[in-house]
Design goal:
Blueprint (H helix, E strand, L loop, with lengths): L2 E7 L5 H21 L2 E6 L5 E7 L3 H8 L3 H4 L5 E7 L8
Antiparallel strand pairs: 1-3, 1-4, 2-3
């Protein structure tokens, strides 16, 4: 099944709200990792967003999946970019 690089962008003024929502966000992410639909995930160290590697049938399915993230549901992600990604070497290849 294809992999998709999903890029989240955050608005800096929502940092406190995101921190308060982080337990729900991380619980949701953990469940998706356990289910295999998210292969890897982590924030950018500058706090500007996060990268998720999503396994899905197509980009619409990947986008629909991340739309269920509590951060997305609460409007804490200002931009979502979904691109199909083809790893050639490494753990996800």
């Amino acid at each position: 099944m294809p992999l998709f690089a999903v890029d989240y962008r955050y608005e800096p003024e929502q940092t406190d709200d995101r921190e308060a929502n982080k337990p729900a966000h991380r619980e949701w992410l953990s469940a998706r990792v356990d289910a295999g639909s998210i292969r890897s995930v982590g924030p950018y160290t500058d706090g500007s967003g996060a990268l998720l590697v999503v396994e899905a049938a197509d980009s619409d399915t990947a986008r629909a999946l991340v739309a269920e993230d509590p951060h997305c549901l609460r409007g804490m992600v200002s931009e979502v970019t979904v691109r199909e990604w083809m790893p050639v070497y490494g753990a996800l290849a």
